[in-house]
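Q: For a teaching session next week I want to show students how multiple molecules come together into a single three-dimensional assembly. I've collected the sequence lines for a complex. Could you give me the predicted structure tokens for the whole thing so I can convert them for display?
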Amino acid sequence: MIKSLKILEKLSDLDTGSKCNWCPGCGDFGILVALKQALFELQLDPEMTMVVSGIGCGSQTPHLIKTYGFHSLHGRSLPVASGMKLANHRMKVIVIGGDGDGYGIGLSHFLNSARRNLDLTYIVQNNQVYSLTKGQTSPTSESGFKSKTTPEGAIEVPVFPLSLAINSGATFVARGFAGDVVHLKEILKKAITHKGFAHVDVLQPCITFNKINTYQWYKERVYKLEDDPSYHPEYKASAIQKAEEWGEKIPTGVYYTAERPTYEEMVPQIADVPLVDQEISFVDIDPLLKNYF
Amino acid sequence: MIQNGPINWLTGGEAGYGITTMGSMFARMCARAGLHIHGYAEYPSLIRGGHNTAFVRVGPSPVLSHEGKVDVMLALNKETIEKHVLEMDKDGAVIYDNEAIDFDFSAVGKNVRIVAVPLARITKELGAERVMRNTVALGASFAVLDFDFDFIGSVLERTFLRKGAEVVEHNIRMAKAGYDYVKENFANGFPTCGGDVLPFEKKLSGVANQPSRMVISGNEAIAIGAIRAGLKFMSAYPMTPVTSIMQVIAGQGTKYGIVMKQTEDEISAINMAIGASHMGVRAMTASSGGGFALMTEALGMSAMTETPLVLVMGTRPGPSTGMPTWTEQSDLRFVMHASHGEFARVLFLPGDPKECFEMTFKAFNLAEKYQMPCLILTDKYLGESVSTVEPFDHKNLKIDHGESISMDDALKIPEGTYKRFKLTESGVSPRALPGYPNCIYTTATDEHREDGDLDESSENRIKMMDKRARKMATLKTESLPESECFALHGDVDADLTIVGWGSTKGPILEAVSNVNTDGKKVNFLQIKCALPFPEKGVTEILKNVKKVLIVENNSEAQMAGVIREYTGILIENRLLRYDGRPIPASQIFDKIKEILS
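A: Of course. Below is the structure for the complete assembly, covering every listed component.
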């Protein structure tokens, strides 16, 4: 059964009234506002939308948006969301979490979700530091990054999440900046309406524990891919090249798009009716039992 | 040997040559003839080249375990003879291809019959591919046992019907060739190792007018129980000994509308199952010790978010990789206590395929009704052994969704008033599903309030902990009384009570039934559910027993420890085995004799 559509009359219809525990000035606010605006402008039915998070500062997001929400385990938001999508693919499922959550402990789920291509939107609040645990090195921290657990500086090179996503089969890969809410909102709208696994990495300044990658630092470096008319996000090779561009200049916008059937489209069991709407009051196992006589 | 009835049949060969399939075909042919069987397969953790065996015990009355000397050995390679010839009964028969295997039988018992059949040559002469040698061999072994060929034909027909009449005929022709070769060449008896020619005394004859029985493994019974319970989603990562559950369900996916998702790891498997279940479908996962270890964090998420989950845990010997394809009961404590924090869970301990079916069905109802994890603990011996089972009585099983809110109910709820984790007397909060109108909520793995928002206050914490714990008390009174959590098999008044659980049920019952004929009375207390533990019933029984013995397939007597914890009673007599092999009835029988003498 499908319920009637719930209309969002104003942006504040998405407010929950829950207390937010982010530091004033945190980049997560910009991401939250951009996401809410995107949902509002797309007029997504909040009763048919599920926001899933992992664990981290930004993973409080589901409590701050009035849609269905699931605040899961550290690193496990993608598998939880994948199960949800397979059980009820009529729901819009948006996944959100930090860089430690998605590129550290949950990296394998990230790569496998990209190649699976379920219709999910995956937003990563990437602040290049572990903040909920009060300032340790993250998978995206730059080499030499000094933190409480790497007092002499991080030795590893950082991961390049966008190139991992493209190489793993994601069909929409983008990067936004929490300091440019309008641009980020437009990227999120494209990601949410994209059919397939859409990955949006968001540069998110942590004003408390990352004194290097600040709003100012990003503002001096970010530029928009759409401003370059010669860039075509359909080309994989140039997208991968862009995905490793980091330093003096950092691209934002849509890096890569591709068309591929979604996972759920390829599962005949749910071609007509989502699993959750299938009748189970009496399952006749007699034909199956015959195989054992 | 404690029984004269059953005949033991063993086949062995290289891994990858269909040994398990042969065992299963032999078993089904016997079952078709109205006989009872129990089949057990041993194999190493290799794809090809290792040594595999399938052991089938067959008899006119129920056969409950893997036991005793080999009466008929069907050796498809030399290693089978080398490794198992000392397990032969003194009047047993070895069937082998004398043109392919060179073996010196002079050191073998003098009465052991040698049945040399040129399996490869017969196969080749009939123009068949090499794999058909197995069918020729099956036919030969039934001829030695003087079995009616019609039963063989009917099973081959049913097995290969889907592949067309030609394939059926081809298989029957091959089996008949092996059968006839033995009948024609050994009409006067079989040469023995000692140089005589003797007939093979043991005969396998069908029993007329028997109800038809299934030949099924514990894993298959679990898969079918889950399908009957309305399973819609399974996510799992392959791991011995539970992989066949995934495979049976995947195979029925399009027929029954079930999505079986193989995941990148066990962490993903359990998290996906919880995600699917949260949306309102019946979902499960399965693993063995190592994979289950990875699942433990999310097991607690099922409890904290009050999301129904059914999890099958099939034990193999640990610690670590241990002995991947062997059996053990060493994970009882692990599964009882797995995951951090304190939360309610159900833990079923099925002892045979029938219980696997029934408990799995029940687990889905309990998981949904009480919004908590329900676990089913098995092991390699129960999961992968096949036996003849009376048809499952499933017509009257009822799906129970518990206190769920329907879409229509949700329409009547004033917006902003629904509390997903509402404090109730039963502890169960009426559940509305994501996608319903007027019920928006967020679920969290952090401690939360009735409405799902985070709250770490002392007052809220105590309320929510108590609410979740109350579900177990409600479950015990409403849905899972103590009487369902244990069974006393045999007379209440006995000289000795054996306590066991899980896969030792068959061997214990077999040992007990044999002792009783000697005049001494032995009964069997089977623990069927570890959580909730039936403490009153078990205390009542154990405080009145004359003597008591615990039988467990582990080294620490874990159930004895659990019993002591719940009842205060210490069981001193222990029969423990932890070499990866199941405990045969004879070992239990010997221990009983030792205690009673």
